Amino acid sequence: MGVMMQAFHWDCPRVDQKEFQWWNFVNTKLPELAKAGFTALWLPPIHKAANLTGPSMGYDPYDYYDLGEFDQKGTLPTWFGTRTELAALIANAHQNQMNVIADIVINHCSGADAQETNPISGQTRWTKFTPKSGRFPRNWECFHPNLYESWDEMTFGDMPDLSHRSPYVYAEILKFTRWLIEEIGFDGFRFDFAKGYGANTITAIQEYRYMRDGRVITPYGVAEYWDSATNTLNWEREVNFSNSNPVDAFDFPLRDLLKNLCDQYGFGLQSLVNGDSILKAQPRYTVTFVENHDLRDAGRPIANDKLLAYSYILTHEGFPCVFWKDYFNYNLALEGTANGLAALVSAHEKYAGGSTSVLYLADDLYVMQRNGYGTQPGLIYILNNRGDRWNGAWVNTQWKHAELAPVAWWSKKDMAPPIAQQTDASGRAQFFAAPRGFAIYTVK
Questions:
Q1: From 411's CA, which of 22, 41, 64, 269 has a CA 20 to 30 Å away?
Q2: 31-73 pLDDT, tens per residue?
Q3: What is the dihedral sign for C-alpha 283, 285, 291, 295?
Q4: What phi and psi, each to the nearest 5 degrees, are found at residue 264?
Q5: Which tens digit of pLDDT belongs to each residue from 259-276?
Q6: Which residues contact 246 (CB under 8 A, 6 or more apart)?
């Protein structure tokens, strides 16, 4: 299914000293990412933001159609760069066979130009938007409450929430997503704060018949629906019930389990594998991840042994997403070795096909087989949760009289490469991983 790169982190232009040059910086990394095996690039919100307290990551949208062309909100470019630079980035991504995903923030707006008194609520708020692009101007009738809608699904901070039930707002959102696909060149959407509005909006966006360069574009979609597995699955059933282009959801419940694996020594692997997650219930429509921008200051970053978590999502089903800061800033890529994210992404793309079979499961050891599909022959994944010694088990694989060699491995204590294993006539062999480590084998 591919591997996604979240191509930003919070305050990335400032942290990486690339203010107003982020698009150019990401562009320089594309050949490297494509070589490693990444197939999709998730970009931060591209529009001009409110910038009320300085440069913004874009989650406070002001002018949806200003991609760094209009001098407003204190700057001409966005914090990431200009429209021309964004276009060059998207074109280069496509040349490197990578899809580009737009982060769209359609729940709320910020940075209005004037206050208005809502005649329904009697409240005075900043709701008059007159963007210099001249597109999608807004007034109080576009926000909650209005003549069409009195109940708001969920609010985000104190920013006014767009009312999707307003025919004008609904039509403008669809015009906006059509523009992103057909004119700007995006291939799909990440729906920010999907809890905040009706699922029917996402269904409409996914179902629209987009056309670009004379061909139909079916957009990819993934939603940020941050909740329990049960509630997320219920939401997915609602949004995908009559949707011919189903949307995925980020697997926040699995991420919590992975944090427990990394940060709680002795956390049982049976709890990891059998715990509630979108991956366990519905692997076809889940994006698995280890870290993202929202977890930066919520007291939830993973502090230890993060490669264990990445080894899990990059060997299992689902659509795995890698965090830019982990790959580059924290140097977990370890390109040119068998021990880092680059090797895991390569193993995912070359071998991790087909369904999953659990071959062995105990609290301190997990052995799994991907059964292979098409050009991906499958793999054996071993996760050792013991910190004191190598750990392994005899298992029955699908390969008979075959030699299986390690293609990726890591350990907190012992980086020695695992030994290649030979299966017998029944496909049986013994596989090991180093202390607090993992190993991935595939048939030679």
A1: 41
A2: 999 999 999 999 999 999 999 989 999 999 999 999 999 999 9
A3: negative
A4: -120, 95
A5: 999 999 889 999 999 999
A6: 206, 236, 239, 240, 285
In sequence order, what E strands does 251-316 have? 286-289
Alpha-carbon distance of 71 to 51, in angstroms, equals 13
Selection from 6, 21, 46 nearest residue 184 by Cα: 46
> Which phi-psi region, left, alpha or beta, contains residue 4 (left: φ > 0; alpha: ψ -120 to 50)?
beta
**401-435 tens-digit pLDDT:** 999 999 999 999 999 999 999 999 999 999 999 99
Give the dihedral of Cα atoms 336, 340, 343, 347; nearest 10 deg. 170
3-class secondary-structure state, position 393: strand
Map out the domains of the chain with their CATH numbers: 4-351 (3.20.20.80), 356-443 (2.60.40.1180)
Q: Give the HSE-up count for residue 88: Cα atoms under 13 Å, Cβ half-sphere.
A: 14
| AA identity, residue 274 | N
Closest of 41, 1, 24 to residue 327, by C-alpha? 41
Q: Which of these, 75, 80, 74, 50, lies nearest to 63 by C-alpha position?
A: 50
Burial annotation 214-243 (CB, 10 A radius, 16+ → b, else e): eeebebbbbbbbbeebeebbebbeebbeeb
**Alpha-carbon distance values, 220 to 55, 125, 227, 282 (Å):** 29, 35, 21, 17
Question: Between the CA of residue 189 and those of 25, 171, 281, 362, what are the distances in Å?
Answer: 22, 17, 23, 39
Per the DSSP assignment, residues forming a β-bridge with 47 are none
Question: Which pTM does this prediction carry?
Answer: 0.97
Taking Cα atoms as reference points, which of 65, 86, 111 lies closest to residue 20? 86
Rounded to an integer, what distance in angstroms lies between the CA atom of residue 96 and that of residue 93?
Answer: 5
